[in-house]
Amino acid sequence: MSGENQRKKFTVPQLAARKSPAQKLSMVTAYDATFASIVDAGGVDLILVGDSVATVMQGQRNTLGVSMEHMEYHVQMVAAAKPLALIVGDLPFGSYQSSVQDAVRNSVRLIKAGAEIVKLEGGVHVCAQIAAITAADIPVMGHIGLTPQSYHRMGGNKIQGRTAGAAAGSKNRLIEDALAVQENGACAVVIEGVPADLASDITQRLAIPTIGIGAGNGCDGQVLVMHDLLGLSPRVLTFTKPYAQLRDIATSAVQQYVEEVRSGEWPDTEHSFS
Ligand code: KIV
């Protein structure tokens, strides 16, 4: 491989500058070193250590129960893989909502654990937190639209941006949220679970890149939860696509092992010591 083609570490300034339909951003979640190295080898720009760890790894109904200790632990595991992709650490529910001091203190914890940028959910109502974290020289990624930490306010994980008016989750409010996130210093923003035309509209209004999930094709990048991308999740959501069927492959591998143990075929002499 020539020096020119060699992939280099993806950095925050590169992220902030990536606003081009010709070079869309790709982000995938990972929660440990093994899978971080797999998604990194796949060439993603960003690895999100998401609080989706709650649903896909911990078996929880929503993301609300994830603690700072959980997130630090998973960020440390992903950082141990030393990926070329930028490591995004998700601030969990309760770690930034109550004060800017909490927001900065907990962002510092994620950075010390190995995150290179932190992500938090919300728009207008978390502006002070975004500004304070940015002022502490920690890069911030926003997250607007269907924000899973607003599970109870939304009445579940519901598509946002379909209503008029100014209430949280309305179309106008989401545009306001996006602008507020940008004005307060975020260098990118995730747009989740909103109609495609609204996500495109927001993308065009912003100078920072948008990364969509369940938000159509008009964003500057896309993110998927790794378990959905690899077909590890037990069910397929409308806005996700399994690019492999690892759940089936893994299940049949285990079935074969169980059969071989029961029949006495495993271990054979080749895999035994004399
Ligand atoms: O935690 C997560 O995986 C996320 C993505 C769905 C954007 O926030």
Provide an overview of this structure:
The protein is α/β, with parallel strands linked by helices. It contains eleven helices and eight strands. The protein has an eight-stranded parallel beta barrel, surrounded by six helices. Helix 2 crosses helix 4 and helix 5 crosses helix 6. The longest helix has 18 residues. 3-methyl-2-oxobutanoic acid binds next to strand 6.
Q: Averaged pLDDT, please?
A: 96
Reported for the largest beta sheet, the result is: 8 strands, parallel, barrel
The tally of domains stands at 2
Let me know the number of strands. Answer: 8
List SSEs in N-to-C order: HEHEHHEHEHEHHEHEEHH
Count, helices = 11
CATH superfamily label of the largest domain: Phosphoenolpyruvate-binding domains
Q: Any idea what the CATH architecture of the largest domain is?
A: Alpha-Beta Barrel
Low-confidence stretches: none
Radius of gyration: 20 Å
Please provide a brief summary of the model.
The chain is of the alpha/beta class. It is 38% helix and 13% strand.
